[in-house]
Design a protein that fits this description.
By secondary structure, the protein is an all-beta fold. It contains no helices and 11 strands.
Length: 119
Amino acid sequence: QVQLVESGGGLVQPGGSLRLSCTAQISDFSTYAFEWYREVSGNRRQWIASIVSDGRTNYEDDMRGRTSISRDNAKNSVYLQIDDLKPEDSAVYYCFAERLWKGDHEKYWGQGTQVIVSS
């Protein structure tokens, strides 16, 4: 059974940094692309960043420059570093994994980790 577990959320002051982790209980981890989302108003999930199997990354325009996504295939883990946190970054952050494998489009979500940015 596939499981994605996020961690690293919490309370942080404005201007601070956080490193979120997503550890995946998943076979063939390196074949998956991973993304980070956050839940914004109206229960909509906003895409933040993605990293594909060869390590290429992409970022939402407003997050580019203060966000970094990375992966460690040896640890079955993906990370999201966010710097210069703002109150509007407060949200539940979700890890998402997907791959197209033998005709199947596999998609998995984690349970989320809460980030609160407040003084």
